[in-house]
Amino acid sequence: MTQDTHDRLLIIDFGSQVTQLIARRLRELNVYCEIHPYQNVTTDFVRKMAPKAVIFSGGPDSVTREGSPRVPQEIFDIGVPILGICYGQQVMMHQLGGKVESGHGTAEFGRAFVTPKGQLDILDGWFTDGDEQVWMSHGDHVSEIAPGFQVYGTSPNAPFAITADTSRHFYAVQFHPEVHHTPKGAKLYENFVKLAGFSGDWTMGAYREQMIATIREQVGDKQVICGLSGGVDSSVAAILIHEAIGDQLTCVFVDHGLLRKNEADEVVGMFRDNYNIRLIHADESDLFLGELEGQSDPETKRKIIGKLFIDVFQKHADTIDGAEFLAQGTLYPDVIESVSFSGGPSVTIKSHHNVGGLPEKMGLKLVEPLRELFKDEVRALGRELGLPQSFIGRHPFPGPGLAIRCPGEITREKLDILREADAIYIDQIRKHGLYDDIWQAFVAILPVRTVGVMGDGRTYDYACALRAVTSVDGMTADYYPFSHEFLGETATRIINEVKGINRCTYDITSKPPGTIEWE
Ligand SMILES: Nc1ncnc2c1ncn2[C@@H]1O[C@H](COP(=O)(O)OP(=O)(O)OP(=O)(O)O)[C@@H](O)[C@H]1O
Ligand SMILES: O=c1[nH]c(=O)c2[nH+]cn([C@@H]3O[C@H](COP(=O)(O)O)[C@@H](O)[C@H]3O)c2[nH]1
Ligand SMILES: NC(=O)CC[C@H](N)C(=O)O
Ligand SMILES: [Mg+2]
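Above: inputs. Below: predicted complex with xanthosine-5'-monophosphate.
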């Protein structure tokens, strides 16, 4: 999807779990970049794309293994700056005449400290207070640097932690500058793109224009059904697609019986009041709750919901002449947690209903204009599109809804209890002015009854857990530090006002090791 008007950077993906973070760091610098799996990067491809700089990502393979991934040798002759990271460093050294070895006790995982060895342009702003913390994750190591290269930084287990051939503007580092735990990593990217001559011309405005063109090209004169939940992602997707193809769009809001209190009315009302887009309100709660009856395994529940969503979309598509496409507000974290990206090594954590939970065979083709964005970028795009703050500021709500906040078997009784408790919790958060400080907050009803005493009588009711987290992109999260007063007041309200709950706990697990949802 190469576009012509912006400076371009090519990221060659060797399958690292954090390749997308490289793109993120670059987008923060308003640099346009594209990630392409190494298999697709031929000399011809590079010539056509004409990138102004190239980055080689990390990856799980070992350069020492015969048949392991390589870059086309000609890439070193096109005369643009190249940055190699971890596997990317190793492949660069190997292909340019250096040596990489496995083993010998030189593995490093996690925090490491690099000591400088001389001045280097991409390290401008580094080492101001001595050694610099970086994040390492490697078993192999470079044992001999390629001709023309020099060492600019060492760590205890990586004598070649930072290497460069400044005359050709080739840089190769063993650590991962894209992750949070390399605190000066963003600065390294900034220096790199500056010396490569990027003007920082890539903005959400530019993304919007590019996506509109892409959607028009993909859809042609066909019709599109868009799964609209009222969440930030699908709202932004719908508005963007509407801008691209106008009347060829029909939104379908599915009430699967797993929504929060009053949600269906609010979403449909909010959308109809603000936008002139065709919207179908599909009440399918009997279908979903019927199929979920008796199911307690989280992945099974997710897959059932994913399939039913598609069945419902298909049913409505069948009533519209020329409806060939299904649009969804899928984001990059949905993808990375569900499936392995471009042949990479990422493990399936949970099958997000809109990606890993999709049925294998589908009649509709997907339109997913946000598939490579993170949540905060989608919010920025939403602002760019002029969406009201009431859409943009909403906490995320997962497609499977209350199903994954009701661990184990779902019953209508539990869902009703959960809806009431959740409404009180969110009301408390709003009343205390905390809604916008929190990334996401909800109640989970636990599959356990506990004994209580209320009004001198014995109770034997459900326990619930309150969850509230801070996060930037949903990939990592921390629990929100409520005051004890807030927690006490909220627990009292829930237990007093909701029949069926007699115990309330606060979940203080971060992500990782927990996930945000309970299933
Ligand atoms: N109730 C629903 N009706 C129709 N489509 C839905 C529904 N719930 C989810 N979807 C589809 O699945 C996609 C993924 O859901 P997800 O919850 O991640 O995104 P969202 O609801 O758009 O935004 P948010 O993350 O803010 O909740 C949505 O973008 C939408 O296309
Ligand atoms: O649309 C969705 N379909 C899903 O199947 C799904 N599972 C989790 N989530 C949301 O994703 C973010 C990260 O969630 P986890 O830490 O629980 O994986 C959080 O914001 C979750 O609410 C989902 N969203
Ligand atoms: N994170 C990486 O890129 C690892 C590179 C290579 N697989 C190693 O273990 O050294
Ligand atoms: Mg949602």
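The CA atoms of residues 227 and 292 lie 21 Å apart.
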